Amino acid sequence: MTGGSDPIFELLPMVFARPGDALARAEAVLDSDPSPLHGSVAHHVIGMWQRDFGDLRVALRHLRRARDLAARSGSADREADVLGTLGVALVHDGRTRQGLAALERGVARGTGHTRARVLYRRAYVWWVLGHHREALDDVRRATPVLRQVGDVIWTARALTLRATVHLALGAVERAEADFTAAERLWDTTGQEHDKADVVESRALAAFRSGDIPAALRLFDEAEERYAKLGTPQFVFHIRRCEVLMAAGLAPEALAEADTAVRVLDRIGGQTTRKAELLLAAARAARLADDPHTAMARAADAVRLFAGQQRAWWETHAQLVLIEARLAAGRASGRMVADAAAVAGRLADCGSPAAPEASLLAGRIALRLGRRAEAERHLSVAARSRRSGPPLARMTGWAAQALRAEAAGSSRGVLEACRRGLDVLDDHRMTLGASELRARASAQGAELAAMAQRASLVSGGPRRLLVWSERWRATVLSAPPTRPPADPALLRNLTAFREIAARAEEARVDGRPVPTLEREQRRLEREIRSRTLRMRGEVPGDGHRFDPGRLLERLGGGQLVEIAELGGRVQVLLCGEGRVRRFEGGALADALAEAEHVQAGLRRLAHPGAEGRLPVVEAAGRRLEELLLGAAVPHLGPGPLVVVPPARLHRVPWALLPSLRERVVSVSPSASSWLRAVETEPPPDGGHVLVRGPGLATGGAEVPELAGRYGDTTVLEGDEARVPRVLDSLDGAVLAHIAAHGTFRADSPLFSSLRMADGPLIVHDFERLRRSPYRIILSSCETARLASVGADEVLGLVTALLPLGTAGVVASGVPVNDATVVPLMLALHKGLSSGLSLAEALRDARAALPGDAVHQATGWAFTAFGAA
Predict the structure, then answer these.
(1) Which of 76, 445, 551, 791 gives the lowest tally of CB atoms within 10 Å of its CB?
(2) C-alpha pair distances (Å), 572 with each of 462, 581, 635, 639
(3) What is the pLDDT of residues 619-630, one digit of tens each?
(4) What is the dihedral angle through the alpha carbons of 26, 32, 36, 39, rounded to the nearest 10 degrees?
(5) Are 78 and 1 in contact, with CB atoms under 8 Å apart?
(6) Backbone angles phi, psi at 847, to 5 degrees
(7) Shortest CA distance to 191 belongs to which of 240, 143, 218, 156?
(8) Taking the alpha carbons of 732, 736, 739, 741 in that order, is the dihedral positive or negative?
(9) Hey, which residues does 564 pair with through a beta bridge?
(10) Which is it for strands 578-586 and 568-575: parallel, antiparallel or unpaired?
(11) Does the reported pTM lie above 0.90?
């Protein structure tokens, strides 16, 4: 028997309702010299707890004892019930044959209700092993019986399992229906662990239907529920890693999977879950451009899956292993055959990953010059472009583009790339967080590069410009979703500022700060987590970049868009009614030279380094040759807009000899420059001057600027607190902020400006209804940006541009505070006479003294946008 009037049987469902209480009560039963029946149930409860939350070896010891006592009790159903649990534990320990044999005996020994529960457990094992059709067969046999006897808990479990199997087979709608039905049943029970599990499963279903923000929100909810129960859940980590990878957060997924493996090893947990975690880590490492780690993790996963007789999982691990080997530069005929075999096995078992394997086989064949063989595999992969979730359709369009490229059809390449990037556009716009939008763009990098190659071959400079724009700084194409009026988020932001301010004060005083730093990191994780959950509210507007419109708006000026193809710099010069292409140098050389320039400017910020000035100027000349090449004589005398790739945004463009006396502005893309040009200043916006604490000069320019403009708000001292500053900045026509800036390369959206009550971070700016039309940031490194995704930049400047700011002046390197003051005063003199930011900055540089420190300060500042 598995239930009845005896209170001892209440312990069995308690394992997944109140796990700690169930364990304590079962141990108390064993301390009381129980009967064989009661001893069997107590050992059964401890075995279940250890199997799912503790040491699997301990679990097996208790479950075997439970089986023996059940046999002594004379109850065939009691014995069958224990055999079902023991079978699951054996399979999780990698003893697949023994586990299936125990389950078979349990099915044979059990009757009616008990037999249905054992069938459910065998269905679960079939799912773990990747035998999805067998899993569906067993769960379909069990469910009617469980419903008939009114067993709500086990009926809900059966529906949850059936939904999970449907997800593995790509049947998302069927899965969602079963999850919904299961959740209604769980709401009538006290099974808190099972309730957390169904929330986790709904997160996976949301992800499979393409809703990443909902998936992240549900995973956070499930994690909170598990934390209250104190029950580690390794399946949870496996599933969340999958979503993190799809969101472009592969390094985080790798860290989470590796940490979970270490925890599992420490407690002696399930080897089946270890294999799955290794597979997740392998996938994450491959996406994080770490093919050697990916190969190591995938090889370990293949070995474990093979030993566990889990062919479905083993095949998926083999796919990742081949992908990692290709990424590491290996390619051979054997790899083509292996990838094709993997594709066949995945197709046979109904895996949605089958097109990915066919695409892989086609890629390797193309690399080896086997075009006929490549066409065969790519044509199979291309079938997925018409249906399925966004990333599966992306796989199909990538295969179609490769087919066209191999056939020499530029038109076919461009059409496939356009269709594939349209799919990704739609997907990205479901994401509310600018970070996720930026990172998701990496999934379109290959399509964008193929389109650029095709344009270079057959389309001319104008078409190359269009495709360079198609996937450049797309995160700026629409404002980020406004953070919700979430009281918890606002509390976390306030607490974060307070903790950060206390930590900074402690550092200044020389006091230890590890506790404060831990709390600051915790709050950062919570703020980021809540931000990533936001769903996109702004639909894609279908706008396509129009070179004619750009050329018209440039007037007498010109725009230089710098693209990179095959490691070489391509210079697209737009102006005078046409687009011309020139070739620059190697991008790698330009990046190295840009680093040298940055280092030189940092040294020149300090007196006594004047001897470095000729070195820095020489580096500027080399940068000009590499980045502008033969375009320099054609730049003309008018204003110039520079649109660099993401990795070159830190270049101090005013240092380049041909640009030193010009009006130069920088923009992340030509499209964003056009939007800036067409942005109107707010008709009733005021002027805001902010002076933060701790500046070497005390923000000495602010008092002198206070009387320059009418309708001016000055915030300093205790008034320069984040809420007051944000309120004043909202809708301002001009803001000047003199405050310490901190760039966070590890988390760009936590880059900050130091206010009286703590840091003003990018997440705060995103809460503005409209950011100031013009912003001047006079402190160090406020223009630093992080390159993420395909060609995206994240940081303070790029956060402001989609929110209504048309122009920003900021520095990309540390500067000498004393020399900033005259530069800022000269800059505002030009602005008050009607000049643009770029014009005023050009004139302000010219007005500075000619010594090395002042020159370096002038070069460090850049005008962004078009105001």
Answers:
(1) 445
(2) 8, 5, 11, 16
(3) 999 999 999 999
(4) 10
(5) yes
(6) -85, -10
(7) 156
(8) positive
(9) 569
(10) antiparallel
(11) no
